[in-house]
Design goal:
By secondary structure, this protein is an alpha/beta fold. Helices cover 43% and strands 13% of the residues. The protein folds into 2 domains: 197 residues, Rossmann fold; 255 residues, 3-Layer(aba) Sandwich (Rossmann fold). It has a 6-stranded parallel sheet with strand order 3-2-1-4-5-6, with helices on both faces. The chain has a 6-stranded parallel sheet with strand order 11-10-9-12-13-14, with helices on both faces. α1 packs across α3. The radius of gyration is 24 Å and the shape is elongated. It binds nicotinamide-adenine-dinucleotide and uridine-5'-diphosphate-glucuronic acid. Nicotinamide-adenine-dinucleotide binds next to α5. The site of nicotinamide-adenine-dinucleotide has 27 residues, from α5.
């Protein structure tokens, strides 16, 4: 049987390898990482990432055929198939800064593979990479190969955080791209046979390398585009009295459109949508396609607009100033059921409120105070580096508190902003919250999870994305900057 090693024990490497190990008990899977803290976490009772169902999967195969190690070179050297699932951040300096993918970690992984390999290997791109990366990797490996033969495959990952285990158990599709040579196709078959242990054959798609690489960027761009489309409509709903939930439901019934990914929100976050679209924009520019680049760039433009529109609503409703006013922020993770805060809209919203001198009190069931403070102190794009390499600015000397429950956050607050759709926020005792707060008391629902009418009956002034406005809000229109 093949031996598998995965470089990168992150949100993708950890869960995907755990599921492969679970479904293929006769395959040895070792996940390696340069971060000692991450590996120690994977070997402990408290995994380094929060993901429903993952603890159980890891417990069932760790020590049996699933191992986590910092001995990167040893396990890469021994493997037949090497997955590379390292960070591919956005470049912050030099050519393509602010758009292009920074392939530093990928390149160093490829050079290390070349250094330690003594037997032929299949190298699998699991990270999301610019189209044509496989060609660059082939060159690095070929020029440092010492006679070792390599086949590069593109096998992008489509899991979403919060549902990663479910997505990996029953993926919509598995995509494998390879060279159209007999050796390339033989490598595709090796990987296909691994997935075929639990994924129906008709869901395993094989393509050429460039289609697989580009499909991943395109899939994320299409998903993000749907959110920006509905968010753009949400602004028009607020201006006209239409209700974005009703509009989304109506258009989603059209089977050509479909109902998913049409929830208006304060904006999309997460480690990949923005990064991958910027990457796509850069690639289009490089291929001389400025119109195509502009088209996709606007998906991010609307997302930024949505976040600043939300902040402006908060400030304008509260007499055009939040200076010295306590604002409770419920939810800091970029979506529910994860502790991940990468590119979470909560960072931009908190920064906007702090910029207007608010006193911010944050509660999230899965995000630690240390993480919140790091996020608020970090420069754009710096988060996407292994933690020990992340440059963090001055500890934020800002009026920010992180609390251990929602009521403490709301105590004496003028407003509550809901920024993550955690289930527990649907079921809070809003009457109790109201009694704890300053008056007039405001709720700004950035996820459309509360019933505005019920809250209005309690006495709140309520803003919900894309929903008909209270008279109060109509009298104090927000202008997006
Ligand atoms: P992550 O930051 O959680 O994990 C990456 C890991 O790689 C880190 O632990 C880091 O220490 C390690 N690493 C970096 N360079 C290394 C090296 N040279 N040797 C050994 N380890 C090294 O990132 P992630 O969220 O798992 O994403 C990884 C890739 O997968 C990215 O390209 C991302 O775009 C893509 N992706 C992510 C998701 C997601 O939901 N997070 C989904 C699909 C695809
Ligand atoms: C997304 C894709 O869904 C995955 O297929 C992909 O593999 C992954 O990116 C990746 O490449 O990293 P993820 O970012 O984990 O997964 O989570 P999503 O469920 O896509 O949510 C992304 C953001 O969009 C969240 O902030 C979420 O709250 C927001 N969102 C989602 C909305 O605002 N409205 C929606 O209707 C759906």
């Amino acid at each position: 049987m093949v031996k598998i090693c995965c470089i990168g024990a992150g949100y993708v490497g950890g869960p995907t390898m755990a599921v492969i190990a679970l479904k293929c008990p006769d395959v040895e899977v070792v996940v390696v990482d340069i971060s000692e803290a991450r590996i120690a976490g994977w070997n402990s009772d408290r995994l380094p990432i929060y993901e429903p169902g993952l603890d159980d999967v890891v417990k069932r195969c760790r020590g049996r055929n699933l191992f986590f190690s910092t001995d990167v070179e040893r396990y890469v050297g021994e493997a037949d198939v090497v997955f590379v699932s390292v960070n591919t951040p956005t470049k912050t300096r030099g050519l393509g800064a602010g758009k292009a993918a920074d392939l530093t970690y990928w390149e160093s992984a490829a050079r290390m593979i070349a250094d330690v390999s003594r037997s032929d290997k299949i190298v699998v791109e699991k990270s999301t990479v610019p189209v044509k990366t496989a060609e660059a990797i082939e060159k690095i490996l070929a020029h440092n190969g010492r006679g070792v033969r390599y086949q590069i495959l593109s096998n992008p990952e489509f899991l979403a955080e919060g549902t990663a285990v479910r997505d990996l158990f029953a993926p919509d599709r598995v995509l494998i791209g390879g060279r159209e040579t007999p050796e390339g196709q033989a490598a595709v078959k090796v990987l296909k046979d691994v997935y075929a242990r639990w994924v129906p054959e008709d869901r395993i798609i094989t393509t050429n390398l460039w289609s697989a690489e580009l499909s991943k960027l395109a899939a994320n761009a299409f998903l993000a585009q749907r959110i920006s489309s509905v968010n753009a409509i949400s602004a028009l709903c607020e201006a006209t009295g239409a209700d974005v939930t009703e509009v989304a439901c109506s258009i989603g019934k059209d089977s050509r459109i479909g109902p998913r990914f049409l929830s208006a929100s304060v904006g999309f976050g997460g480690s990949c949508f923005q990064k991958d679209i910027l990457n796509l924009v850069y690639i289009c520019e490089c291929y001389g396609l400025p119109e195509v680049a502009d088209y996709w760039r606007q998906v991010i433009g609307i997302n930024d607009y949505q976040k600043s529109r939300f902040v402006n609503r908060v400030v304008s409703s509260m007499f055009n100033t939040v200076a010295g006013k306590k604002v409770a922020v419920l939810g800091f993770a970029f979506k529910k059921d994860t502790g991940d805060t990468r590119e979470t809209p909560a960072i931009d919203v908190c920064r906007g409120l702090l910029g207007d001198k608010a006193v911010v009190s944050i509660y999230d069931p899965q995000v630690t105070e240390e993480q919140v403070r790091r996020d608020l102190a970090m420069n754009k794009f710096d988060w996407d580096h292994p933690r020990h390499l992340q440059p963090v600015g001055e500890p934020a000397d800002q009026p920010v508190a992180v609390t251990s429950d929602a009521y403490e956050a709301a105590h004496d607050a003028h407003a509550v902003c809901i920024l993550t759709e955690w289930e527990e926020f649907r079921n809070l005792d809003y009457r109790r919250m109201y009694d704890l707060m300053q008056k007039p008391a405001f709720v700004f629902d950035g996820r459309n999870i509360v019933d505005p009418e019920k809250l209005r009956d309690i006495g709140f002034i309520v803003y919900a994305i894309g929903k008909p406005l209270d008279q109060w809000l109509k009298d104090m229109p927000a202008v997006a900057s």
